[in-house]
Write a structure and sequence with these properties.
By secondary structure, the protein is of the alpha/beta class. The chain is built from nine helices and nine strands.
Length: about 260
């Protein structure tokens, strides 16, 4: 079953946290609780600290995840097990919230996503009525990070509209730049040219429902990046650059580092 989630006439935005039970590299990661709280609860509480959303909802197809959300008194919606992606789960929640104008997709394995980042993507859509989707990026800090396929890169135009997302290093630098009058290469990514895409999306409700109804695009299938469906269908994704980069939890090492940070804090 699902909790009854309603949008009041005043509410305009909700955070939706897609939460899968299965995870190949880190089994049952949403339910890991070495800090005393599950990973999912950390993410939920971080999202609840944002100022703009009217509420936070977990979208899951697994009863154990639902029981955990009930345990920490959160809100959840049971979604279809046939949902192919987190976006599909958020869209299913959107259909139950006809008055919600903006829905923010925050991954359940992003326990350190800042509340300010959530407010920021909502504000991007509030300030740009023509855009249907917004996200964030941060400057890449090292050449190793740039080369890592797990680090998704994004390039955007002068108005902050995404041009492309890729697991490959983009843009490609044909000639190694040199500082004027020097043979010493410049400091890496200074000024920033390479940006990492952060795993947060804000959608207008109508845009979300439209995109989720489309079949996976060829670029999306090639890169395994669902945001490319939006670009390939001709949509606009706004990108704002922030300094803070939340650390997603994908591997046992990622989780161990997160636990260490929590204990140190």
């Amino acid at each position: 079953m699902s909790r009854t989630i309603t949008a009041t006439a005043q509410s305009r935005s909700f955070v939706v946290i897609p939460a899968r039970y299965a995870s190949t590299r880190l089994p049952r990661k949403m339910l890991l609780r070495e800090t005393g709280k599950t990973l999912l609860q950390h993410t939920y509480e971080a999202a609840c600290a944002a100022r703009k959303p009217a509420g936070v909802i977990v979208a899951t197809d697994h009863p154990e995840i639902a029981r955990e959300v009930e345990r920490f008194h959160g809100d959840f919606v049971i979604t279809s097990p046939d949902c192919a992606s987190g976006t599909d789960r958020v869209a299913e929640v959107a259909r139950k919230l006809p008055r919600a104008e903006i829905l923010v997709n925050v991954q359940g394995d992003e326990p350190e996503m800042s509340p300010e980042s959530i407010d920021h993507v909502i504000e991007l859509l509030e300030q740009t009525p023509a855009a249907g989707m917004a996200t964030l990026a941060t400057p890449i800090r090292s050449a190793e990070q740039l080369a890592d396929p797990a680090c998704v890169k994004v390039v955007f135009d002068n108005k902050g509209r995404a041009l492309y997302f890729s697991r490959s290093p983009i843009p490609f630098i044909r000639d190694t730049p040199q500082r004027a009058g020097s043979t010493v290469p410049p400091t890496f990514n200074d000024p920033p040219l390479f940006h990492q895409h952060l795993g947060i999306y804000a959608y207008r409700r109508d845009t979300l429902l439209e995109v989720s109804s489309l079949p996976p695009s060829s670029l999306e299938q090639a890169e395994k990046l669902e945001q490319l469906r939006m670009l390939q269908s001709g949509g606009t994704i706004l990108v704002a650059v922030v300094e803070h980069s939340a650390s997603g939890i994908d591997t046992p090492a990622d989780y161990a580092a997160f636990v260490a940070r929590r204990r140190a804090g």
